[in-house]
Amino acid sequence: MKKGFFVLLMAALAPSIYAQSIGQAGQTPTTTAGKSPSRAESYLHFSKARLADAEGRFNDSITEYKEALKLDPNNSTLYSEMAQTYDHNSRTQLAVDTANEAVRINPDNIDAHTLLSQIYWKQLAARNNNAAPDRGTIDQAIHEYEEIIRIDPSDSAFLQLGLLYQYLKQPEKAEELYRKHLKVEPGSEEGTLALADLHVKSGDNKGAVAILEDFLKNRPDSDRATKAIGDAYFYQKDFGKAAEYYKKAIALGAADDDPEVEENYAQALFMDDKFDEAAAIYQRMLQRNPNDPATLVKLAQIYRSIMNFDKARSALTSADKLVPGNEEIQFNLYLVDRDEGKIEEAIARLNTLAKNSEHANGRYTPPEQQNRAIYFSSLAELNSNIGHYDQAIQAFQDLRTVSPEKEVVDARIVETYREAKNNDMANQYLQKALKAAPKSRPLLIVQADMIAEKGKVDEGIRTLESLSNGMPDLEIIGAMANIYQRAKKWDDAQNLLEKAVKSFPMNSDVYFMQGAMYEKQKKDAEAEKAFRKSLELNADSPATLNYLGYMFADRGVKLDEALTMIKKAVDAEPTSGAYLDSLGWVYYKMNRLPEAEKYLSKAVRFAATDSTMHEHLGDLYSKIGKYPEADAEWQKAIQYATEPHEADAIRKKRDQIKNKLPKKQL
Predict the structure, then answer these.
(1) Of the residues 33, 372, 376, 530, which has the fewest C-beta atoms closer than 10 A?
(2) Is residue 611 part of a domain?
(3) CA torsion, points 120, 121, 122, 127, in degrees to nearest 10?
(4) How many Cβ atoms sit within 10 Å of the Cβ of residue 259?
(5) pTM for this entry
(6) Alpha carbons 184 and 512: distance in angstroms, whole number
(7) Is residue 94 part of a domain?
(8) CATH number of the domain that 587 lies in?
(9) d(C-alpha 211, C-alpha 633), whole Å
(10) Dist. CA 197–CA 401, nearest whole Å
(11) DSSP of 509-543, one letter per residue?
(12) Chain centroid offset of residue 418 CA
């Protein structure tokens, strides 16, 4: 539109606006010809103000409004129009003061209330993300929207008012407002989306889905509502359904206005283990924008999930070239190293991440502190897994500086000393930690276990019982069961767990503990029954799937079912040395030796001090004729064995292959 035409248009509109202003001031509108001299002159200044507004001459506009108000001081609309000019010129406080004067003169001036509501809304939206909104501003905004609704119940102010009550954590009031809006405007897409979003934020995803599905019966073409159902299913962790609706939303054109819907679709497919489909979408996104590091990271995560580590590393290397040194990219490279079993490289990368994230003043934002906690806990776990206990303890000490759960970290340090067979240091550290926190539950649980390990089983049990306060406590029950089983007090363990089943009949962990107890006694039928009951309650439990699958594999029975179970456990936790060992062992029992070697050799990288895993790998090497490698693994198994009879059994295996070893190795 040409500027000249716009100016003429504004001038043409001025008479009607001015006529409204006379009516709002409580006076009878008159024609221009019938105006009193003062009113006619006021109108002239008003017209000049409007022209100045149209031409962007804000100071001139304000001057003309002021002249008009001298002649017509009780004209509410003149004040509201001048307030808008102040607002357009970013003179916010003058805009607020002037609009409030308009409202004082005429409480029903909806334009003034609307301007005030918009100003307060902008102030709330413009706040620093880390700053809480000013409650006074919220209350002022609420007042203005309530006034707008009072004057015009058909106004969409219901929606803004509902959002404000949502922020104030008054969901019932917000829902009431959204439903009022939907009564005034049935079938409103905005109202339906606001109501559904309220249910999502309240954790009622099913309710949100019901609201949106009902809306789509009459508006099946709504791409926004279709996407919103996808979001609700995603939050429900029903990723298959989420992907279905995201796909429909894209077909309806949602991606034209909301580019994120395509990424949401890919993420839902990824979470639903449809890796190829997800990768194809990210590849298309990369074709459109080959220099998007975020898409490269997502693609790398897919490749890592399907253990295509070369492609994962390649994608991350490309991302790193685009944003060198980016923390998220470096962390994902660490994950690739870790999952591939390159533990030393993974540790080196974590150390670099920890060092680069360090601040000289020791002050960190909550996200920075959380990241450092992840780095240190990962360093502690990896170093512990490969027997680098000093480094693991140092990492735990570093973790302690950023963790709010210092007593939990202290307990883990004690356990690491125990893993390193350094019981003196374990006890020294425990006593020092207990002196600082004598009632610490995690520390007292560790103390009870250490007491019982020295043969004082009853004293250890009494210490644990004192922590339960006479009430069933699953954590304490688990600790007591471990003590009884280590002491081979099977009857006591069984009685304890039978009582636990009565107290927690729907808890899968209780049946898992029962299954483990029976398995240790070679009561396979009872163990299988307990494990299957645990899986009825939690079909996706990696620990239960692995334990039952390994039990079948070790006995050489139900190997196909064992393979299915253990694969599922490994998919859930691909870096668990125990699960990788189980998978390798079931392949060994099935005589699928190449697969067995792949997973057994990987398992010992994640659990370098586990005797059983080294023994399994030695068995595999012996079976395929790699006798020097078998002997080396069995030597490690003997080194890490915790029971003399276990070490003796492995020595017999070494003796059986002596004649097959090179002479220099004997």
Answers:
(1) 33
(2) yes
(3) 90
(4) 11
(5) 0.78
(6) 56
(7) no
(8) 1.25.40.10
(9) 61
(10) 39
(11) HHHHHHHHHHHHTT-HHHHHHHHHHHHHH-TT-HH
(12) 33
